[in-house]
Known about the structure:
Blueprint: E1 4-7, E2 13-17, H1 26-31, E3 34-40, H2 46-57, E4 61-67, E5 72-74, H3 75-82, E6 91-93, E7 99-102, H4 109-122, E8 126-130, H5 136-150, E9 154-157, H6 159-163, H7 165-168, E10 174-176, H8 181-192, E11 203-206, E12 212-214, E13 237-241, E14 244-247, E15 259-262, E16 265-266, H9 276-281, E17 291-292, H10 295-309, E18 313-316, H11 325-338, E19 343-347, H12 354-362, E20 366-374, H13 378-384, H14 391-403, E21 407-414, H15 421-433, E22 439-444, H16 452-457, H17 466-481, H18 486-493, H19 496-500, H20 503-552, H21 556-576
Parallel strand pairs: 3-4, 3-8, 4-13, 8-9, 9-10, 15-18, 18-19, 19-20, 20-21, 21-22
Antiparallel strand pairs: 1-2, 5-7, 6-7, 6-22, 10-11, 11-12, 13-14, 16-17
Amino acid sequence: MAQIIFSLHIGVQFKDITPNFFCANEKEIKKMARFAIITLYDEFAHGTRILIANLKKHGHFACMIAFKTYSAEPLESARNVYKHLYEPMHIQVQPNGDYVNAYSYPPSPTEDRILLDLLKRLKIDLVGISLTCVQQAAARRLTSLIKNELQLPVMWGGPQPTTDPDTCIKSADYVCRGEAEDVLLDVGKAIDAGESFSHVSNIWTRKPNGEIIKNIERPPVDNLDTLPYPDYSRESIFFIDEDQLRCGIPFPKSDLNTNYLTQTARGCPYSCTFCYQSYVKTLYPGRKYVRERSIDHILGELKEAKARMGHFYLEILDNIFTLKEERVAEFCKRYHAEINEPFWCYTHPRCCRDNIVRHLAACPNFEYIIMGVESVSENIGIDTFHRKQTPQIVLDAAKVINKYGINVNYDFITNVPGETEGDCRQNLDLIRQIPKPFRIRLSKLSLFPNYEVQNETAGKNRLVTEKRYRVWNALYFLAQDVNLSDEEVDAIVSSPFFEENPEFLEKMNVILTRQFKENLKLNVQNKIKTVEIESRKKHEECLDGDMARLLGRKGMKQFLWLHDSAARAKRRLKKIL
């Protein structure tokens, strides 16, 4: 189909957009419902891309608009920007002690205008916004903008509307709870028929009198193989950032250019109180919640990604990839043979057994693993987080990982209401026992609305001050690289100097982290050189074998003797002349 360019009055160009996007005639508009789903600070948006593909598969028009690219900011910077909106959440602790807010930074007026003009030109019937709790303020602002400027209905979906629909319905016209593939198909049918979709399962909406309609939840999709692969087609995906609109091509700074995300399964067998998956389970009591795709279906998706990207770094986003040995074994074997690109995955201390990990270690494409530990104290790990694990279970899993020489990150949660200095010491003692090398990832606990961890921490004071947490957090990182004795730990945690000046420990971590990265870089270079040397050795061996076979052939020795004699005769002739 011929491609056209549309220019806006603000100077932005719509490139590589086919005519059916802008509906050349009214018949085109009446044929199908037209959806646009906006993702906020998440250009990967694996789930949204599946929704888009599923709507298109069933004859509807659908596109995704990735509004702003993922980013991370220093906490103080984020607080200065958002102090009039909300307290930043989803905060990571860095080795230098700085907290980082991962996500929202304000769009420009030009970017707002690009979005509004795009929605108008696409003649959208329903705008969806996919969001988590940390993006709620940004979603409220965009919803108000879209409704005031374009008078379009807006539906919210994703983790935040699922867990806190009562708050979300105050801003959105509709809220979709839980998995949305079948929900949006029913919504599309209703729009096609010119009917209301306020009765559709999983949907919340408001009546004119303000009464809220709360439809029951339908079961989640049981057979994930019935869903299409995520949509990466250039004509269905838009990116808005840096005062620009791109069609199908992410911005250069985006990891989408090099990385690919997938899920081989949905759901988790555990019920950690801080996790979204635990809340979603309550929507489907008595139903199978962990559902797996077939290996054929997974590899089919990855083959499409490889054909499109050439090479990529695969991130497997399953809550726990290492649940079943036979599944991990088949995936690793076939992935190496059919895809052959690097990948990493998540594991759990209770699902990190030798019989499973050995298959990952044997796969040449496997790069590293991330294990969620969070806390090993009885007070926090078991009573607050409902993590059914002991320090010994974690150490046994860590020893399995170390046995196979696998690169690993361990996740911990810090700054928890009700956490004591004794709880911090238990976590530090565990980290000190984990066999090196490893890295830790540290996050502050986020109390998202209606998560069970809110109930578990309700009424509990913060027993560890921010300054003391800086000391403990710095010690967690320090224990990655330094073998701290009990006496050294006691001296540091009891020292008034370090309590008043935790930056000294933090600066030490910055140096050690830099050194670790340099060593890692050297190790990679050494591996590359080793591979090159081995490759040359094999090449020489092949040449030696070929030469031996040639020499063994009848008449070959006489041929070589005659060839050498002729060469010598030519050299003598040159000397004579």
